[in-house]
Amino acid sequence: AYVIGEPCIDVLDRACLDECPVDSIYEGARALYIHPDECVDCGACEPVCPVEASYYEDDLPKSLVPFLQDNARFFAEPLPGREAPLGSPGGAAKTGVVGADTELVAGHPPRE
Ligand code: F3S
Ligand code: F3S
């Protein structure tokens, strides 16, 4: 799957959202997350991101490797304010803006 990493935090350009044919990019509070099982690896989100936040999982720069697990964690674990994990909603339209982040993203220093 593709993965959205640190460069997206506090930038949230959202150009990627319009490109995804399966609606597998979900909106947290400070970043967006790609659903590892719903993404079909079309790659359309990668070139449109102005800050190069989206990568195929095997092509992640070393510094962004933690975001591979973290994108999965966004769906597999409960988020602040939500008792149940998101699981596999079948498209971001089903959840709307989730409005919460993983610990990794929530704990990231604010971008100036
Ligand atoms: Fe983030 Fe880039 Fe999409 S900044 S919202 S991954 S276009
Ligand atoms: Fe969508 Fe990007 Fe995957 S456009 S299908 S999240 S590669």
TrEMBL record:
InterPro entries on file: 4Fe4S_Fe-S-bd, 4Fe4S_Fe_S_CS, 7Fe_ferredoxin, FdxA_Actino, RnfB_subfamily
Domain 4Fe-4S ferredoxin-type intervals: 30-59
Record keywords: 3Fe-4S, 4Fe-4S, Electron transport, Iron, Iron-sulfur, Metal-binding, Repeat, Transport
Cofactor(s) it depends on: [4Fe-4S] cluster; [3Fe-4S] cluster
Residue span of region Disordered: 79-112
Molecular function terms, GO-annotated: 3 iron, 4 sulfur cluster binding; 4 iron, 4 sulfur cluster binding; electron transfer activity; metal ion binding
UniProt keyword Electron transport, yes or no: yes
Role: Ferredoxins are iron-sulfur proteins that transfer electrons in a wide variety of metabolic reactions.
Protein name: Ferredoxin
Source species of the chain: Blastococcus saxobsidens (strain DD2)
Phylogenetic placement of the source organism: Bacteria, Bacillati, Actinomycetota, Actinomycetes, Geodermatophilales
Gene: fdxA3
